[in-house]
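Write out a record, fold above all:
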Amino acid sequence: MAHMTSYSSPAPTVGFDLDMTLIDSRPGIHACYLALAERTGTYIDADLTITRLGPPLADELINWFPADQVPAMSDLYREMYPSIAIAATPAMPGAREAIAAVHGAGGRAVVVTAKYEPNAKLHLAHLGIDADAVIGDLWAERKAEALREEGASVYVGDHVGDVRGARGADALSVAVATGPCDAEELRTAGADVVLGDLTEFPRWLSDYLRDYLPARA
């Protein structure tokens, strides 16, 4: 779908993280871990797991299963996930408006996430969030690969791993303090901009396109 631009600045490509940036994945992930625990007879503290979202699934499962079982448990979790987690997961406040702001500037909004890509796409489709591309299974520095390939000049995320991904791609790191990392931790990690949540993003983007991009031209 073509989007009209109202800016003379180059149209931006903006990358977004998914979990705790665009979507509040805690209810769905909590339910899925409880289901996995019941299915396998293994104790999993689902309340604890949702306090440290961001890193890859295997990084969490290793806390509950022997290393040689983690690949199989990852597959089982991902198989169970669509029927349990998608409908239970709401958009974060301002998520749709943030994507719309990028499109309103004539830009592209791409999602780069550590989440299993098919499930990431299911979340966005269920919530009606219109991303131009979705790239999954990438975490921290590896996100820089997709950000560079997509030509992203900005990456928005909630985790210090997202900051590292942005910096690795020479993209501006815009952090939202809506996930497990607070504003001070995000600043210390090197975020260029820290917002309270995505409701602040459209105004920030407008100012950035007006003031910052022309100065770089």
